[in-house]
């Protein structure tokens, strides 16, 4: 096997497959989302992050790129340019300058190829029709895409990789428990498709279907094929979708309308198809009845309500009391805790509106904004830290009686001197000492990791730490909270019902909420408005990409939530912020009064 195939097999095929959970570093292209001062045109330092594409990292650090690895980079433009970067002595060469990167739409893929032709600004990729051997490793590809405002971003550009292909796992069983020794499978699919260099998204293949021979697993009856992302197209012809061979017999199986509730094969994900052989035929394995979905019926409890999370003292949105602002009617001084409506009249005659609530002392919610390289604070990818800081300010304030008891009991312990806890005081002017701690300690992390590390000392990811001395930090409440205590949970696959269920539970149970959009930008939800069926119609949230540029300094944004099925990307039952920004995850942080009470049974919180 060639070295290239060995590298792919080691770095991609042996990686744990799952949803492509990108690190929550920011990649919005709005000028307000990057830095304040543009770094001079110089050599760009590319950081290719494998954390979203690999599983557990071995103790020896396996899973990182190695010298000699080659990555292809597309710079979208007219014309689009293609570079091949090679890792040499720990650096990617040749070095590119910011001026080489066009308007900042960048795609990258691994392993690099010499034969690419970015026709119509697409990257074409094909999977092997025979994946029983080396073709399986050759079929995989890692993919990354970012849109960056190069006029404001630093010279360090991070591209998080995710698996570009889909994995179809077929598991065959039999009624009597015995399977033929010569069992084999073929699956019919389009094997060649493309990724848009403008948006980074896969586009449904337009080629003819071919028969693909999957890779046989170690378990009898288990087969795996790598497929280009595409919609699941049922086949009703005599040729079928699956051909199952045993001896001189062939059994045909037509594709169902959906597998596991999905009608598409999405990039970076795994679909498992369980089939049972019975008397010369094949049928789906029976699945247990799903639990009732609480989001499918109107919810009287939440119908037409407007609610903040626990402990927040701010007015909900009321169109009767809002201050209206437009380019022709600007205001310089905003009133804290009074809603503002921005009205924009465009040259084409259309009008758009947006709503914000300025932060006010004692309002109970927080909007920690990134400082955009001010005071040497490198925070271009620190949206996860902004969201985590918001939650921690809320968490400490809502637990203030317990925090005071903790400090009284443990304040003289050695870790307080070595690791003094940053102040939880907050204002838009003074910013956040907790956020500054994250900047001084870490690089890019996953959403919610900051919450767990700060409270318990859990540091599951050590690859992005700037200050190694902080690796030993026991957590600022580590005398009460163990590293095994789950203070933050991450939830993905945001269907309409799941999204509503999680937020309603948080409203009832004194929890805080982080949310991630498009897999890469972390923000904080503080409240929600429900429609006449009890579904969320609007959320109130803080976006850490807006702060110093915004005259409000810190604000809660009101924005509509929409729900879509079967959109053009083949995604099913998704939740969106507005009409185009997909909400991909919700993180939940609990006050854990149960743990506090065990440690301090005599403490009585005010509420």
How would you summarize what this structure contains?
This protein is α+β, with helices and mostly antiparallel strands and 607 residues long. The protein contains nine helices and 35 strands.
List the helices and strands and how they pair.
Layout: H1 3-13, E1 45-49, E2 70-75, E3 81-88, E4 91-93, E5 105-110, E6 122-126, H2 134-139, E7 142-147, E8 156-160, E9 162-163, E10 166-174, E11 184-190, E12 192-196, E13 202-203, E14 209-212, E15 215-216, E16 222-227, E17 230-231, E18 242-246, E19 249-253, E20 264-265, E21 270-278, E22 281-284, E23 306-308, E24 323-325, E25 340-345, E26 351-358, H3 383-398, H4 400-410, H5 414-418, E27 426-427, E28 431-432, H6 433-441, H7 449-456, E29 488-492, H8 496-508, E30 511-517, E31 521-530, E32 536-542, E33 555-564, E34 574-577, E35 581-590, H9 593-599
Parallel strand pairs: 1-8, 10-21, 24-25
Antiparallel strand pairs: 2-3, 2-5, 3-4, 5-7, 6-12, 7-9, 10-16, 11-14, 11-18, 12-13, 15-16, 17-20, 18-19, 21-22, 23-31, 25-26, 26-33, 27-28, 29-35, 30-31, 30-35, 31-32, 32-33, 33-34, 34-35
Helix pairs in contact: 3-6, 3-7
Structure, described:
The chain is of the alpha+beta class. Among the domains are: 3-284, Sandwich (Immunoglobulin-like); 374-486, no CATH class. Strands 4-3-2-5-7-9 form a six-stranded antiparallel β-sheet, with no helix packed on it. Strands 30-31-32-33-34-35 form a six-stranded antiparallel β-barrel. Helix 3 (383-398) packs across helix 6 (433-441) and helix 3 packs across helix 7 (449-456). The longest helix has 16 residues, at 383-398. The chain starts with a helix and ends in an 8-residue tail after the last helix. The model is unreliable at 1-39, 52-63, 287-296 and 566-571 (pLDDT under 50).
């Amino acid at each position: 096997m060639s070295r290239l195939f060995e590298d792919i097999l080691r770095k991609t095929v042996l990686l744990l497959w799952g949803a492509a959970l990108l690190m929550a570093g920011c990649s919005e292209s709005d000028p307000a989302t990057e830095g304040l001062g543009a770094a001079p045109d110089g050599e760009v330092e590319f950081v290719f992050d494998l954390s979203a594409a690999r599983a557990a990292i071995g103790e020896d650090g396996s899973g990182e790129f190695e010298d000699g690895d080659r990555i292809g980079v597309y710079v979208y433009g007219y014309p689009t340019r293609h570079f091949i970067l090679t890792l040499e002595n720990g650096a990617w060469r040749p070095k590119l300058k910011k001026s080489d990167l066009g308007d900042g739409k960048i795609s990258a893929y691994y392993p690099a190829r010499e034969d690419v032709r970015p026709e119509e600004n697409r990257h074409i990729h094909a999977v092997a029709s025979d994946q029983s051997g080396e073709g399986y490793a050759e079929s995989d590809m890692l993919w990354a895409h970012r849109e960056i405002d190069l006029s404001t971003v630093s010279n360090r550009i991070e591209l998080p990789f995710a698996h570009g292909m889909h994995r179809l796992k077929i598991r065959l069983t039999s009624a009597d428990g015995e399977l033929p020794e010569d069992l084999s499978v073929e699956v019919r699919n389009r094997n060649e498709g493309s990724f848009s260099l403008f948006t980074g998204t896969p586009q449904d293949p337009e080629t003819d279907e071919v028969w693909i021979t999957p890779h046989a697993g170690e378990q009898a009856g288990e087969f795996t094929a790598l497929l280009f992302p595409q919609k699941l197209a049922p086949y009703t012809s005599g040729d079928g979708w699956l051909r199952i061979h045993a001896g001189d017999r062939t059994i045909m199986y037509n594709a169902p309308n959906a597998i596991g509730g999905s009608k598409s094969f999405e990039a970076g994900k795994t679909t498992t198809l369980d089939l049972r052989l019975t008397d010369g035929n094949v049928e789906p394995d029976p699945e247990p009845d799903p639990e009732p979905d609480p989001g499918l019926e109107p919810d009287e409890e939440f119908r037409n309500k407007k609610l903040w999370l626990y402990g927040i003292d701010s007015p909900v949105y009321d169109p009767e009391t809002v201050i209206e602002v437009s380019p022709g009617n600007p205001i310089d001084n905003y009133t804290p805790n009074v809603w503002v409506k921005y009205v924009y009249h465009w040259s084409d005659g259309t009008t758009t509106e947006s709503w914000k609530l300025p932060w006010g002392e004692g309002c109970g919610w927080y909007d920690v904004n990134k400082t955009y390289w001010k005071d040497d604070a490198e925070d271009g990818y620190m949206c996860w830290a902004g969201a985590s800081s918001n939650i921690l300010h809320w968490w400490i304030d809502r637990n203030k009686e317990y925090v005071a008891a903790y400090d009284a009991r443990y304040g003289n312990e050695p870790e307080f001197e070595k690791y003094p806890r940053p102040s939880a005081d907050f204002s838009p002017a003074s910013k956040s000492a907790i956020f500054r701690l994250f900047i001084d300690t870490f690089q890019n992390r996953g959403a919610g990791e900051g919450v767990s590390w700060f409270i318990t000392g859990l540091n599951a990811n050590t690859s992005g730490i700037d200050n190694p001395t902080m690796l030993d930090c026991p957590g600022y409440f580590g005398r009460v909270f163990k590293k095994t205590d789950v203070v933050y949970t991450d939830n993905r696959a945001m269907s309409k019902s799941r999204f509503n269920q999680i937020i309603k539970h948080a409203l009832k149970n004194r929890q805080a909420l982080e949310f991630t959009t498009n897999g890469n930008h972390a923000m904080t939800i503080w409240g929600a408005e429900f429609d006449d069926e009890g579904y969320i119609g609007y959320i109130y949230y803080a976006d850490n990409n807006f702060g110093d540029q915004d005259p409000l300094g810190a604000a809660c944004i009101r924005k509509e939530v929409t729900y879509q099925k079967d959109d053009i990307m083949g995604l099913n039952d998704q939740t969106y912020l507005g009409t185009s920004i997909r909400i991909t995850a919700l993180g939940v942080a609990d006050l854990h009064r149960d743990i506090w009470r065990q440690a301090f049974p005599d403490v009585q919180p005010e509420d």
